[in-house]
Amino acid sequence: MAFHHLALVTRxxxxxxxxYTRAMGFELVKTVVGATPAGGWAKHFFYETGRGELMAFxxxxxxxxxxxxxxxxxxxxxxxxxVNHVAFAADDVADLERRRARLLAHGYDVLEIDxxxxxxxxxxxxxxxxxxxxxxxxxxxxxxxxxxLEALHDxxxxxxxxxxxxxxxxxxxxxxxxxAARGEA
Length: 185
Prior knowledge:
Layout: E1 5-10, H1 13-23, E2 27-35, E3 41-50, E4 53-61, E5 86-89, H2 93-105, E6 110-114, E7 118-124, E8 130-136, H3 142-153, E9 167-169, H4 176-181
Parallel strand pairs: 1-4, 5-8
Antiparallel strand pairs: 2-3, 3-4, 6-7, 6-9, 7-8
């Protein structure tokens, strides 16, 4: 089952918008502005990510909410950034390569990893959240399903052999959301 939307918070709606429209290629399709329960207000804005699914952000204006809340979904709660992240589907390896080129052109470094069963590229959004595009490169079979269940129930499962070394692609330009903040992008 597909998800309808994922909602996260931002303290910089403009930078978030620039990143998700220009660098990620998503389209803003809806913004809802409404009162909060404590008497403030909030914007809830939604981006079409593909296949009918949405990514949404909250911009909060409510005195009952502290100003210094973290926005990164992993590091904000003390975890390494790779733990909680948002992974979007790429159609195939060619689509993944196009998305990598787009992110680099918009100023975002990209980490590429071949996981053996899928390939992924990763970058950070302006909120500090790790975002991923991923494409499955081989079908799962009965053995995969059996080993998955065994590993899930094993209190100390064996480590898998390391795959190919991740590759860092460094952008040659400053991130688009920073250029846009200065009126340059």
